[in-house]
Amino acid sequence: MKQITQEVNDLISRSMDSHVRIAVTGLSRAGKTAFISSLVNQLLHTSTHDSLPLFAASRDKRLVGAKREPQTNMMVPRFAYDDAMEHVHSTPPKWPEPTRDVSEIRLALKYKPKKKTKKLFGSTSTLHIDIIDYPGEWLLDLPLLDMDFEQWSQSQFDALTGKRRELAQAWLDKLDNLDISQPLNEKAIADVAQSYTEFLYECKREGLHWVQPGRFVLPGELEGAPVLQFFPCRVDDNVKAGKGSNLAMLKARYNEYQQKVVKAFYKHHFSTFDRQIVLVDCLQPLNAGYESFQDMRHALEQIMHSFRYGRSNLLKRLFAPRIDKILFAATKADHVTPEQHPNLVSLLQQMVHPAWQSASYENIEMSCITMASIQATQAGFINKGDQAYPALQGTTVDEQALTVFPGEVPKKLPDQAYWQEQGFEFTAFRPRKASSDEPLPHIRMDKALEFLIGDKLK
Ligand SMILES: Nc1nc2c(ncn2[C@@H]2O[C@H](COP(=O)(O)OP(=O)(O)OP(=O)(O)O)[C@@H](O)[C@H]2O)c(=O)[nH]1
Ligand SMILES: [Mg+2]
């Protein structure tokens, strides 16, 4: 009898298991792979280590343990956790390789519930966590769904100012030599499309992040496919381009891109996310200069449109969105001394809040933090005379031991004078040597976990 009761309880307790899909995004090099690797690593160590004091379930000793599980979505590549760990634990330690596509990993987290209803059915419950990594650049494409080819082309030409204009020259020259009203010449189109794609890559290399279409620079499995071979054109009423022309093909490819690439991503991936973390590397544009900083703000604003379900009905028409919490995190906080962290968070808030407040984000909770997924430096002080100055100590990616004060992070959005007067310079450090049976050193990963899944572990 006792055994039957136990079995029934186990059955009910399994049916009470919960599930959450956490999406991790950010522009390229924002720190997505490092974040997911650290998140998985921290959770796998919860039963043996106390390194997450700001994560209530861990602090209260309610986490029993975590294990990896096979992912349920078999159409998406697995997140390469073991490869990332191999890099971080190699001698000397290295950062994980850049990634180019969507990937996912699944964990089961066993915990002791606090809620009476859950306790009734057994002493532990399980939260299944899917973590999905996808490029933030893909979110830059949402506005394309509201524009036809002519409107999109115009928007791209309007954006050609400053550095962007200079970088576009080679592509513009090629475009001038193409008669779009002529019968289709696939080779000529492919040639101009390649030049346009190179221009977008060049923008990224120069620290400009707002690039459209986002898939052109992060094609994933679509690399080389004709659906990624189009480009903006000067289309006016005088252009007589009928069926079978170059222009007709460019329009067809643009439409295909809207339907099969952009819409498909929102329908098959985005609509399944429950929680979202957007990682932002605020330090890279501080290093790079004013134009790069403004450009990142613009890209971030565009990214935020994807979470705005109220006013724009576009997403509602596509699917019923379900993200109810978004965390914006300024990554790589170990690149600056700890007393600069409040400034870093205030800078991020200034980039995110105005757009947030002016738009309608229905029932979505939002927060901003600073963090380091894998802490590469140690913070301390250097003494000069009787004064102690904050400093960072670490080993650079070229294996040089270094102690530095990288500079002050501006509290407010900086104007052009900031880069003329002081600027900012951070060094890329390699990860610290860490033992594989210890959790990775981090800054505020526990705060991120509390925001993302704390309420699911009650
Ligand atoms: N110091 C420090 N550097 C970090 C941290 N996280 C990421 N980085 C640096 O940022 C680089 C990019 O990190 P990734 O995690 O690969 O970023 P990503 O967003 O996955 O990049 P892509 O896959 O190329 O889009 C790393 O190679 C490190 O140099 C961190 O917590 N601390
Ligand atoms: Mg990556």
From TrEMBL:
Pfam families xref list: DUF463
Organism field: Vibrio orientalis CIP 102891 = ATCC 33934
Listed transmembrane segments: none
Record's protein name: ATP-binding protein
A Gene Ontology molecular function term of the record: ATP binding
InterPro entries in UniProt: P-loop_NTPase (IPR027417), YcjX-like (IPR007413)
Keywords in alphabetical order: ATP-binding, Nucleotide-binding
